[in-house]
Design goal:
The chain contains 9 helices and 11 strands. It is of the alpha+beta class. The chain is elongated and about 60 Å long.
Length: about 220
């Protein structure tokens, strides 16, 4: 088994499962690489579970009018799909924002173990609880976050919905439109963008913000320092 997959597994909640089970999951799963801009899961698709080995992914919901809202970002050692294994297909999509490596987990093996081994069932319950708290934190950042946090989150959301077929991320928005969207003023947003440029996270052109480091920009939504 590839070293990076084993390391991602050890860093995830799966690494705390009984050793015999993690060995079987590693042996039965499948590693795959996906370019930025790939759609890995569509609304209502059959349940599946994926371990993030590398990259950055976005989980989003869509309105009937086509508008999208991000409900989660996933990075290395995050596991996607536990909720749908328990509750069935969900009305969400999953998109890669950067070149990513995923390890597809044998969903049947994991759910069967959860039904017969209380240790596994409790581990899944703890993971679902963590995801709930993460979603609450995402909601809090959207509503109460600093301007820096809100600008970073809005740029990622906007660029995600406009991602090119080649995977390039660019948000087509003016500084004033960005300020209006995050509830600030243009001068403050301009300063935040300048700091992002100096950190190598973005490049700016006329009414466009090119995202150079999506993972680093996502860090700004949680770690404004």
């Amino acid at each position: 088994m590839a070293v990076d997959v084993a390391a991602a597994m050890a860093g995830s909640f799966l690494g705390g499962l009984p050793e015999e089970l993690t060995g079987r999951l590693l042996a039965s799963g499948r590693r795959a690489d996906y370019p930025a801009g790939s759609t890995l899961y569509r609304e209502g698709a059959a349940p599946q579970a994926m371990l993030v080995v590398r990259g950055l992914l976005r989980v989003f919901m869509s309105s009937p009018e086509g508008r999208q809202v991000t409900v989660r970002y996933a990075r290395i050692s995050d596991v996607l799909g536990i909720a749908v294994l328990v509750g069935g297909p969900a009305n969400v999509g999953v998109q890669t924002l950067a070149d990513s490596t995923l390890f597809r987990i044998d969903a049947g093996l994991l759910t069967a173990a959860a039904r017969t081994d209380s240790r596994v069932g409790w581990a899944l319950a703890e993971e679902l609880s963590r995801r709930l708290y993460e979603n609450l934190r995402q909601t809090a950042v959207n509503a109460f976050g600093t301007v820096r946090q809100r600008v970073a989150a809005h740029l990622l959301d906007l660029a995600s919905t406009q991602q090119s077929p080649r995977g390039e991320l660019a948000a087509h928005v003016s500084q004033q439109e960005l300020a209006d969207a995050v509830g600030s003023v243009r001068e403050v947003v301009a300063r935040v963008l300048r700091e992002f440029r100096q950190a190598g996270l973005v490049a700016t052109a006329a009414d466009t913000v090119h995202i150079l480091d999506p993972t680093g920009l996502h860090d700004q939504t949680w770690n404004p320092e």
